[in-house]
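User: Structure please.
Assistant: Input sequence and predicted structure:
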Amino acid sequence: MSALKGLRVVELANERLAFAGKLLGDMGADVILVEPPGGDPSRHYPPWLDDEPGEDRSLYWWHYNTSKRSVVLDLDEPSDQQRFRNLIKSADILIESENTQRLATLSLDYADMCKLNPGLIHAAMTSYGRNHPDSNLPVTDLTILAGGGPVWSCGYDDHRLPPVRGWGNQGYHTGCHFTFMGVLTALMNRLLSGEGQFVDVSMHAAANITTESATYAWHVARATVLRQTGRHAGARPSGETQKLCADGHYANTGVPPRKPADFASLAKWLSDSGLDHELPEAVFLQMGAVWEGPFDLSLIGTDDTITAIFGAGREALKLLAGHLSAQDFFIGCQEAGLATGPVNTPEETFEDPHFIARGFQVEVTHEDLGRTFRYPGAPYKLPASPWAIGRRAPKLGEHTQAVFAELPI
């Protein structure tokens, strides 16, 4: 049984929020997407089915709106305001990313809705939080990532180059994840108290606390982290990890050996590959394989022996990567118990045998087109609470009549 089956979510359509509604819907909730007349603008975002623009052909819309039902309401009209109130009476959760004063002006905000439905959980996702004056300024995924901090930490060792934005709506997604988690936490509280609550989500704050060590380093040590190619930003530069492999693809050599068993596996792999003679530092791998006691990484740079052993692990990985394809290098590291990864394109990742084997590709039927399409599935596997795409993304207003027919008169 899906974890959220039996719960009703009302989502006010907004591209910033769409991923939160998808997460709730794909976990089993009945998500009612409220769209304005004419529909949400993201219905018309590329890319397109078969590269042909047209109605209900946006792959962007398809992805972000699975497992939802669409109703059309004009919240500026009194009659539709009343229909919205009736819908809220039947709901467990309301999620929205509106202007901070819009719903209050319409008498549709939490202070009004909780009187109709005391158990309602209302989550509002805005730029800086409901009470911040800048939350009504124009915002994009880029401005959220740049203002929140992640962009500062992303880029290359060559700081003459500008920072790099992570693609894929990561700013919006981060806010949506916190909205999702906030809703789940409020649901747990409601099980004990029987009461709903208002959940105030700041996209800026959500982005800021996902900067790994950047924010922490500043608050604790007033240190500014530096961008580094393919590895964590840090106040102190670390050794390069990205390597051009024999097939012209890159791999990140990841985390070098840190335990005797790791050094032993790497030394054997190097020897079996006939490359040990090309690495004079291989003797340090043997020293690491018989090391007694903890391998204290904090002593790297001050203890010559530990520094040499750790460095030999990194150099051995680079040597192997240079003689193998990125995929073979990755598989070899997996077999040796070492954490590394090839730098794949989205297409290569989607077709990766590991992702296919674990069921990441999901078939979704579009009965309106008479076709089935492969979608990206869940990034997790939870056997006790199955995940599934319940339905294709809805057409505009496709479920308006059915949804309101379900409500008490």
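The mean pLDDT is 94.
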